[in-house]
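Bug #77: duplicate submission created two jobs. Keeping one. Sequence:
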Amino acid sequence: MVAAASVVVAVGTATGMISAAGDGRGADEARPEVSSSPRLEPLPALSPSPSPSAWVSPSPTARPAKKASPKPSASRTTKKRQTAPVSTRLYRHPESRVLDWVRANPGDPRRAVIESRIADQPAAVWFADYSPDSITSRVRAVASGGAGQGRTPVLVPYTIPDRDCGGHSQGGAPDLDAYDAWIERFAAGLGSGEVIVILEPDSVAQAECLSAGQRADRFASLARAGRVLKEANPRARVYFDAGHSGWNAPAKQAGWLRQAGAASAASSDGIFSNVSNFHSTAAEVSYDRAVLDALGGPSSLGAVIDTSRNGNGAPADGAWCDPAGRKLGRAPTLATGEAGIHGYLWVKLPGESDGCKGAPGTFTPSYAYDLAR
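Kept job's structure:
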């Protein structure tokens, strides 16, 4: 299995945020020695960081080695795009494993840190199980919850067939016809308020595992999904999978994204990157701009970046499974101050394990505490 952006953890993330596939929790009984009021540094500032001179991250992941593309031209990294006119307030769903843990452990010495730094932050809601009969009502519950508060929810459909190419997060709809029907039911729950849809993590960046025919079929289905979502709710913002800065070269990724409909305003508002990964925000900003420039399309297209665990960047040894030394990244916001970057989001819920410090997708308080303190 390749260590794709979200492959090992996504199913568990879904269960934590929306109870998509059960509600098991990791026991994690170990308790670190902490003072009663640990000293905290502020979360990383939201002011823009300078972009690196090249898009390739200096800290590769455990993916197969990828040949770096040439350094992006100045015109690629500085070309301005419009920022999507959405609310800058993100929605925090009231059900998640981290909130379950906080409520169940009032006396735990780690509770205050985990609650203030993770549980209180808005994070994405994943829908990772193929459940046609209930998907519309479940999506509607999240979308209406955000609309009721005047906030923007982030939703992640994750049921594309051959998901994760048979790896740890294998699963999804039985075939593309079933997926197309599932997406229509998903879209029917979006309502009319502002929503952000992170469309199928890994579905484009990891498409190398498919045959040319399978890849073309998947991309056609993704393009259709984007159109269906935006037709159902014209205020929906739909973003397509760009992998991350340590994976495919921008030109290659953009070529696939174009086939998947990401360059069309009828399907897409742009791209997302770094889902469940650790690459620095600066590296992702530079990479995403290079992908967008290679992609073409309307100037309104932009990018959103998963900053949930990238505060220290990617580990130098390529570790991807709950690597030590990682920290929370920039707090979620739709006001980034970066041209062409529509948002920093917490798509992966920090503290939900990749499968090494706890069962995949389960909330692991020792891991969450290490990220947050």
